């Protein structure tokens, strides 16, 4: 790991306030150096729950969560850039690690979810800019990550249960959702954008089919230990849910192109099936959590991966609400509302755990420097 540029180390201040500031200066670089590549799942989780509440016309929690993201997204971008400058070796190691490289797709998905929040509020300009940035990052990362998987992976080097590989599908389908929302504002490029998002939707489904087959084989036909059961497993459900959300968005938006309109029956059927598949996974994932923390008594502690559990819950809520409109089946709306509030409660608990874990980490830094 590379180190920050060497600067003269200041003497430790004598006052308690000065000491806390001094320890914060020591603590923050350590946090940046070990930043999880999937840290933008915080933005994804916060944004998708905000969007679900906005879609349900419950504005106060939606706007509050949006404000959180207005702070969180620039901050995570800033410290990621700082990591690239000061801890380049650590960042490079994550990029060529088959177990961690797919975590970088959360940058794309988080950007798109934030852009969708702006588009929902009638701010298309910045949403278009965010979508273009996310699309460029996707084009770079999708082939780079699969290159890592092909050329640097070994038989034991990457475990699909641990790797969060399905973040690649989440990022792909997030481009579909935001792209469909901003396409009508693109003028002469509108039809091009609609064709592109339909293509991306198909690519996302293809990738999901590949990954879910590998995942199911690993889970059902190999030994599973408590360490294998992480919050990243919920991305299996989240990837299916966002694929259904993207399909519902395509159904609810008129492209004005006969060729794409002819695909509607296919999109209708696949969207319902993928939503049902996402629904099927929820009880099984809950049972796996009960087995780990109840039966095997593994303590529940904060980890950045917990945001990868929160996001699928919020995504499922928004997907179910959109599907209720696309299918014109109102009973689904009650399920969406219930899941929306469940997602908010889980988000609140996870956010509180993040604050406590950060405070304890800073306190331990204080103790080490005493």
Describe the 3D structure.
This protein has helices spanning 16-33, 41-55, 59-86, 88-95, 105-120, 124-151, 160-163, 167-182, 190-221, 235-252, 258-261, 264-295, 307-326, 331-369. The protein has 370 residues and is mostly helical. It has a single domain (31-363), classed as Glycosyltransferase (Alpha/alpha barrel), CATH 1.50.10. Helix 2 packs antiparallel against helix 3 (59-86), helix 5 (105-120) runs parallel beside helix 8 and helix 10 packs parallel to helix 13 (307-326). The chain starts with 15 loop residues before the first helix and ends with a helix. The model is unreliable at 4-10 (pLDDT under 50).
List the helices and strands and how they pair.
Blueprint: H1 16-33, H2 41-55, H3 59-86, H4 88-95, H5 105-120, H6 124-151, H7 160-163, H8 167-182, H9 190-221, H10 235-252, H11 258-261, H12 264-295, H13 307-326, H14 331-369
Helix pairs in contact: 1-14, 2-3, 2-5, 2-13, 2-14, 3-4, 5-6, 5-8, 6-8, 8-9, 8-10, 9-10, 10-12, 10-13, 12-13, 13-14
């Amino acid at each position: 790991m590379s180190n920050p540029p060497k600067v003269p180390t200041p003497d430790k201040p004598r006052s308690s306030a000065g000491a806390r500031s001094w320890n914060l200066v020591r603590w923050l670089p350590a946090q940046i150096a070990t930043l999880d590549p999937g840290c933008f799942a915080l933005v994804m989780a916060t944004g998708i729950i905000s969007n679900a509440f906005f879609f349900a016309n419950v504005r106060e929690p939606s706007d509050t969560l949006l404000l959180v993201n207005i702070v969180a997204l620039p901050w995570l971008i800033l410290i990621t850039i700082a990591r690239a400058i000061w801890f380049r070796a650590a960042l490079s190691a994550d990029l060529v690690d088959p177990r961690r490289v797919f975590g970088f797709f959360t940058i794309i998905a988080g950007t798109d979810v934030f852009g969708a929040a702006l588009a929902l509020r009638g701010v298309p300009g910045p949403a278009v800019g965010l979508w273009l940035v996310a699309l460029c990052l996707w084009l770079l990362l999708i082939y780079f990550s699969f290159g890592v998987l092909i050329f640097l992976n070994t038989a034991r080097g990457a475990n699909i249960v641990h790797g969060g590989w399905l973040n690649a599908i989440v990022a792909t389908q997030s481009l579909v959702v935001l792209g469909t929302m901003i396409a009508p504002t693109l003028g002469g490029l509108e039809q091009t954008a609609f064709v592109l998002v339909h293509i991306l939707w198909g690519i996302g489904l293809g990738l999901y089919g590949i990954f879910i087959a590998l995942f199911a084989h690993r889970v059902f036909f190999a030994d599973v230990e408590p360490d294998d059961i992480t919050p990243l497993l919920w991305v299996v459900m989240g990837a299916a849910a966002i694929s259904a959300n993207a399909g519902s968005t395509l159904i609810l938006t008129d492209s004005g192109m006969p060729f794409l309109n002819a695909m509607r029956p296919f999109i209708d059927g696949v969207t319902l099936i993928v939503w049902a598949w996402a629904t099927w996974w929820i009880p099984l994932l809950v049972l796996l959590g009960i087995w780990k923390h109840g039966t095997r008594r593994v303590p529940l502690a904060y980890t950045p991966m917990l945001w990868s559990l929160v996001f699928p819950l919020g995504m499922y809520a928004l997907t179910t609400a959109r599907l209720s409109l696309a299918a014109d089946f109102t009973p689904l709306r009650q399920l969406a509302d219930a899941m929306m509030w469940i997602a908010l409660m889980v988000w609140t608990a996870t956010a509180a755990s993040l604050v406590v874990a950060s405070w304890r980490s800073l306190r331990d830094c204080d103790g080490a420097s005493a």
